[in-house]
Amino acid sequence: MPSNDEFDRDTDYIATRITADGRDGFPVEPGRYRLVVARACPWANRAIIVRRLLGLEDVLSIGFCGPTHDERSWTFDLDPGGVDPVLKIPRLQDAYFRRDPHYPKGITVPAIVDETTGAVVTNDFAPMTLDLSTEWTAYHREGAPDLYPEALRDEIDEVAERIYTDVNNAVYQCGFAGSQASYEAAYDKLFAALDWLSDRLIDRRYLVGDAITEADVRLFTTLVRFDPVYHGHFKCNRNKLSELPVLWAYARDLFQTPGFGDTIDFEQIKQHYYLVHTGINPTQLVPKGPELVNWQMPHGREALGGEPFGKGTPPGPVREGERVL
Hints:
Layout: E1 33-38, H1 42-54, E2 61-65, H2 92-99, E3 111-114, E4 119-122, H3 125-134, H4 153-168, H5 170-175, H6 180-201, H7 214-230, H8 245-255, H9 266-276
Parallel strand pairs: 1-2
Antiparallel strand pairs: 1-3, 3-4
Binding site for glutathione: 74
Active site: 41, 172
Protein name: Putative glutathione S-transferase
């Protein structure tokens, strides 16, 4: 059990699933649901990437919250009048309260909202992207990659579990540690995992198999935030990502792959962490750096073989209204 000074993420999410057979009462249905995200959030970033890779733009609409939020809720302050144009609400909490007027937990992104009722269906981010891959297949674009191939699922799950516990969540355990001991334990766990990932990726282009899978999506959203946020803000400072040659090249490879880097807004990412986490950054100063142009440098990982989309094809251009400004 975690001690009182360790960061313990609340993982009790709304577990309803949207499935092809509608077994939870919510069948996959084009035009019925809205994916609400924030570009700043790594968990939401997964869903943005997967939706784009699979070509679900025409069947699953998307709403973007701003990069900051108050104690109550993420808000739609990027939209005219601060109101989501489809859901007609200023705060994501309004959709949670339509599901449960006494909803007691945090208002989190990503969330999928039923447009017919305005109520949140699920905010369970881990199965959400898996369902997009496996339950929405009738609406995938032609040439969509298989991000969760059946033959590799056990290995993907195993790798993804360590990525979650020792990387995705460990950076938060560093940043929100309440004691030196809990911080150092999380720090050691994080960098042991990054070393393990470096070893795994030294002679293979992707984490599992010869193409991008769900495991790569889950790792990328932490790596892309590492130098702008986690290295300094969360004190994950043994190395910068740019000082870890294998992971830095791997991250650039993904960043330059359509569907990954074109979802990233570094300014919103920095604004979120440095403005919202006042317990860590009470002055709310947002750093100017680091310089991020190096994400477009050649990575050389094509030499390892593999194709990013397997037998599929890249997604098309980012849709109007969904481009990073």
